[in-house]
Amino acid sequence: MAALLCSLVALSEKAANLARIIRSEKALFDLLVEEKKGEQKNKRFLQDFKTLGDVLIQEMIRNDIAQKFPSLEDNVFGEESNKFTNTLGESITVAVQPTEAQTCTLLTKVLDGNACAASLLAKAVHQEIHMPPDSRLDNLSVEVDFDSLGIWIDPIDGTAQYIKGRSEDTPADGIHEEGLKCAIILIGVFNRNNGDSLMGVVNQPFDIIDQDDRWQGRHVWGVSCGDTQVNSLPSMPANNDPSTPGISVILSRSEEEDIKTALRPITDGKVKYAGGAGYKMLCTIDYLVDAYILSKGSTFKWDTCAPHAILKSMNGGMANLAKALEIYQEFVKKGSGDGSDSAGLDLREAELRYEKPDANGSKEAGQKWANAGGIVAYRSKDVLLQVLETLSNYSNL
């Protein structure tokens, strides 16, 4: 498990470097945007984009995992199709080739003969990344059956923010509403037998700008496997005072007004907004908010697997919102008052699972792996209970 995690951390850094290279030159970036159509289009948005960067990152991770861990080759799953159409209308299968030169040749065809751009990308795809020592990784000892593992990849979550580019907004309590900071790379490992999220790496390629006006990134990892609960996070910040009135939540601007209204009694005005589901989950992981709530089924297994494992390692989790509400309301109905006495309340069945599509989800191909029923990402069970209680008590829901 430690060897796999080390590899995934390095791959996330390699992917982040590729994302920065693609975004650094406007002329190159303009070539790499292709609008999603048909089944691949997320119906929640009027415009949804796929970039060659998405495809390259996904296929690079898939290729490198297959080389180092051959038994996982057929169990690496991702958001993107590896088909890309160039401006000549040619459909090309994007895949990492055995050599940098061969990958360059393939990408030159994708890029309509732009050999310079293709060379830059091919070099990034084939480069070796050497990570600095991390004692927590080196000392990690978890034995798992590799034959039971699966991997979900979201190569660039928040593609709209990635395309939109750098934002000059002033962060509110450390949270940016939009821009490159909201673009996130997600790699999650799950158990294919029971669907549990086991391990996750979340990489933010555009974290800070250095003195040379270049973006530098960061990553967070976590493991939640049996008795092993470990992550790369510092301890909870000292200013995170649990006695402060209200819990803080982060939402999408497009969230239902009834949800926003229902949450007012417990948030005391501490409601934040931001773009990108992965970024909102990262804000929860980073102690910037207590929970991320989404009532729509517009996130997917590849979005949530990695941050779910990290939250579990922090004694939090990620639940199907509709299912959690159903379980909570049934618990209260059976005579436990308002649910404040949570002894006996078992919400494990509401935790997201990753081995198969949700039973009540859409059968449409593009929506097959959606988290039907919405989600709530939380840092403690107490926060989850407060969310469920206030939503249950709001009559309009």
Structural class: alpha+beta
- From the N-terminal CA to the C-terminal CA, the straight-line distance is 43 Å
> What shape does the CA trace take?
globular
**Main β-sheet, in a few words?**
6 strands, mixed
Strand content: 15-25%
Helical segment count: 12
Order of helices and strands: HHEEHEEEHHHEHEEEEEHEHEHEHEH
Q: How many β-strand runs?
A: 15
Radius of gyration: 21 Å
Average predicted confidence as pLDDT: 87
| Residue share in helix | 25-40%
Identify low-pLDDT runs: 44-48
Q: Please give the order of strands in the largest beta sheet.
A: 3-6-7-8-9-10
Outline the structure in words:
- The chain is of the alpha+beta class and 397 residues long.
- It contains twelve helices and 15 strands.
- It has helices at 2-24, 26-31, 52-68, 100-110, 115-126, 135-138, 159-164, 257-267, 277-285, 301-313, 321-333, 381-392, and strands at residues 33-35, 49-51, 76-78, 83-85, 91-93, 149-157, 184-191, 197-209, 215-225, 228-231, 249-251, 271-273, 291-294, 317-320, 375-378.
- Strands 3-6-7-8-9-10 form a six-stranded mixed beta sheet, with helices on both faces. A five-stranded mixed beta sheet has the order 12-11-13-15-14, with helices on both faces.
- Mean pLDDT is 87; it is low at 44-48.
